Amino acid sequence: MNRRTLLKWASALLALGSALLVAVPGWSFLVAALRRRSGKDSVVQRVLRLEDLPPGKPVAVPIVGRKQDAWTVYDQQTIGRVWLVRRTGTDVPPEKARVDAYSAICPHLACLVGLDEQKRRFHCPCHEAAFDWSGRRIPASQLGHANPSPRDLDPLKCRVVRDSEEAAWWVEVTYQRFRAGTERRIPETV
Amino acid sequence: MLDKLRQGLERRIAYRQWWDAYRHRMVPGGPAWSRATASCLLWTLIVLVVTGVLLMSSYSPSMTDAWASVHYIEQSWAGSLLRGIHFFAAQFLIILFFLHMMRVLIIGGYRAPRELIWISGLLLVPLVLAWAITGNPLSGSQKGMSQIDVEGHIIASTPLIGRPVQRILLGGDQVGNLTLTHLYALHVFILPFLVGSLLFIHISQIYRHGLLGNDNGDDTASVPYWPYQTFRNMAVLFLVMIGVTIAAWQVGAPREVPANPELPATPRPEWYFLALFELRRHFSGEWEFIATLVIPVLILTLLLVMPLLDRWMSHRMSVFLRSGIVVVGFLTWAGLTAMPVWRDRQDAAYQKTRHELEVLGERAWVLADHFGVPPQGATELLARDPKTQGPVLFRLYCASCHPHSPKPGEGIEPAEPSAPNLYGIGTPEWIAGFLDPERIQSAHYFGNTAKADGEMVSTVEGWFEEAESDEDRARIQKQLEDVALLLAHEAGKAPPDVDPGRLERAREAMIDTFTCTDCHRFGDEGELGSAPDLTGYASREWLIAMIRNPSAERFYPEDANDRMPAFAPHEFGSPDNQLTRRQLELIVDWLRQEWYEPPPKE
Question: Residue B265: its chain A contacts at CB < 8 A?
Fold first, then answer.
């Protein structure tokens, strides 16, 4: 190798070295987003008094919690919405009451599902996914078009509990988020 | 002197070659209006860059600031106009872009040696569209943020690379601050840089190969570009700019409600993506990426290989294919776009939500105009607003028992009302109705409650029983009206010019004539325990205390309370409370109809 070739190679290497000094932190800075988690796995929250929940009709309640959005920390921020359905009537004693909870996030592309009272359905305004009040997907035959949701609404753990003074009965929900667009339920952070 | 300067400059930077290159270009076949699309595109792009940079000077990309800074920009007429021009020029750019493409396709402008012009132009399509859609969420609006949220999930549904790309784009697994900064970096630097680079190739190739003549190849009618074609270009550009400015001035860029996780979202893509939106409806589940990715890429590829296809085809075939692409392409696009528009029009629920969001958007704007945006961000504007929060909270917590309705069929009406109608509580009219023996028993007041046969109802009914003549009745009636006014005065709801003498007479009547203070406490008179305290009746403080705990001694102690729940009997902040202080204040301020209203417009 003569001097001239050596210098050529050396120049190329030096340039590459300098570029790497920027590229390595640059790349790792960008892909940090892949590992960034915005919160905890789940949040347990008392969302509503049982007495405020009419039997049979779904009611939407917000889940409020701490949320970190990059450099801002919100102490009290709505981090999710949940549909509650009280299955048992007011004649059933609170300790035996059954309440079901469904995440209001549509499993299709994560819009918020709303209520269609006439047809007794949950309805997603984005791409017309629809679910019955037990969270099951409405089949295309009844819907008149394909139901874009890959799975049923995501059910959440839900109990009826008493407060610390054992006075009032509350509906307590374990809020979780699941990945949108997949048939399987893959948990994500809330 | 000036000549010397010019010569000196020429020797140093040789600027004339650029000017001459522009000037001495020939337009084969003579100047044409249809050629103006190209130049108009370029200048619209420059207008976008210039207005964009100006907007950047006052814009701040973060969840707390984005909407606020846009509102700030809109407050000056010039800022509002610039933002409008930026918005409408972008819409126009996309229309022009497709017109330009069609024209080049029809005249066969992609043939050798001009393939690179065609290819660089086509590659600009996805870049320009991406450039446009990265701009929408920057306004920090509910619409923009939910659009990018959905778009993120669409990207994520692409096999293999989808999820990492989505995450890097959003800056994490949810839309937030980093989404805005990432989109901002893309929108103001990375995409313009890429577009600029491709444009450089595109334009330098055009200069290299010259302008394309008419299909008949008749070059005899060539004329210089400057000023014959330039004039036409500038005339078209001016018309476009006038149109854009009028739209910006009259309509303005959209003013949407700030992004807020509490609000419903009805995201629809921008008009140029509606066709894809519709297409996706016909592919469900894991196959959606066919509509969102495969089909667009196939179309782009077909166009990219046009120069190759064209070589193998006869002239007639090629004309047939090209006009086919233009006609079928346009009709399919228009049809696919019209369908969701039509469907949404029919969809009452969608229209209702859309309308609610519009009303909230206007309200947020009014609040920001008046109060300014608090440091917690634009979401706080509506979160602090009794006018819009009150009904939401009331529906969730109170409307299972209480109506809030000015007259039947209006306002909030529970299916089975079982408590007093709270519309206008504390006003002279509401209290006068309560003290009216005909009405206190009605469903509007105590009719549906256990109080229907309580002491107050029998007391009120007793007042007129002793009256012997119509005159007596009219006198009692008059006195009760005064009492209602006095209680409304306690609530802070009496007219400001009320006669103090009248109030004093009402006070005496309450104590001596009607002996209210036998049961109620009122100021220094009477005792607590047997009936609610009338001191400061229905004032903000009274209502908050009442709703916090109606069973307190001041209101309905022990068994006196009929079903009205205690919403915050513990100290504020305790998790056992059903309502927070802020929620209570919002409900009460809304009940008392105390919120900011802008002065009526002349």
Answer: 111-112, 125-126
Give the pLDDT of residue B219.
58
Question: Collapsing DSSP states into helix, strand and coil, what is residue A49?
Answer: strand
Residues B525 and B516: their CA atoms lie apart, in Å, by 10
Last residue of a domain, one of B295, B316, B338: B338
| Token output for A16 | 């590459």
CB contact under 8 A, A70 and B176: yes
B122, B102 Cβ separation under 8 angstroms: no
Q: Over chain B, what is the mean pLDDT?
A: 93
Minimal-distance CA residue of chain A relative to B285: A150
Contact A38 B170 (CB under 8 A): no
- Say which of B64, B262, B396 has its CB closest to residue A72: B64
B411: left (phi over 0), alpha (psi -120 to 50) or beta: left
**Structure confidence by residue, pLDDT tens digits, B562-572:** 889 899 999 99
Asked, for residue B279, whether it belongs to a domain, the answer is yes
State whether B163 and B285 are in the same domain: no
Q: How far apart are CA B183 and CA B204, in angstroms?
A: 30
Name the residue with tokens 């100021």. B523
Q: Could you say which of B153, B284, B578 has the minimum Cβ distance to residue A180?
A: B153
This model's pTM is above 0.90:
yes
Q: Nearest residue of B to residue A113 by CA position?
A: B264
Interface contact flag, B261 A163, Cβ < 8 Å: no
Least confident of A144-148, B306-310, B466-470: B466-470
Decide which of B284, B306, B338 is a domain's last residue: B338
Residue B353: closest CA among A61, A154, A123, A101: A123
Q: Which domain holds residue B234?
A: 22-258
User: Which among B64, B262, B284 has CB closest to A78?
Assistant: B262
Residue B214 has a pLDDT of 57
Vertex B414 angle, CA B411 and B416, to 5°: 145
- The mean per-residue pLDDT over the stretch B526-537 comes to 93
Q: Which chain B residues are closer than 8 Å to A111 by Cβ?
A: 146, 149-150, 265, 267
- ipTM (interface pTM): 0.91
The pLDDT value given to residue B83: 98
Residue whose structure tokens are 């701009």: B135
Cα–Cα nearest to B179, from B123, B220, B119, B133: B133
Q: Which carries the bigger pLDDT value, residue B429 or residue B28?
A: B429
Q: Is residue B55 located within the same domain as residue B98?
A: yes
Nearest-Cα distance to chain B for A163, in Å, is 6
The answer to whether the CB atoms of A146 and B174 lie below 8 A apart is no
Chain B residues with CB inside 8 Å of A54's CB? Answer: 400
End-to-end CA distance of chain A: 61
Cα gap B53→B83, rounded to integer Å: 11
Please give the pLDDT value at position B9. Answer: 93
Neighbouring C-alpha atoms within 13 Å toward the C-beta of B272: 19
Residues B236, B90 share a domain: yes
pLDDT tens track for B279-332: 988 887 778 889 999 999 999 999 999 999 999 999 899 999 999 999 999 999
Count interface pairs A-B at CB distance under 8 A. Answer: 116
- Return the exposure string of B338-347: e unless at least 16 CB atoms fall within 10 Å of the residue's CB, then b: ebbeeeeeeb
- Are β-strands A187-188 and A59-69 bridged in parallel, bridged antiparallel, or unpaired? unpaired
**Closest to B167 (Cβ–Cβ): which among A34, A112, A163?**
A34
Interhelix angle B115-135/B191-209, nearest 10 degrees: 160
Between the CA of residue B274 and those of B336, B340, B348, B395, what are the distances in Å?
7, 7, 19, 35
What element of type H or E holds A72? strand A72-86
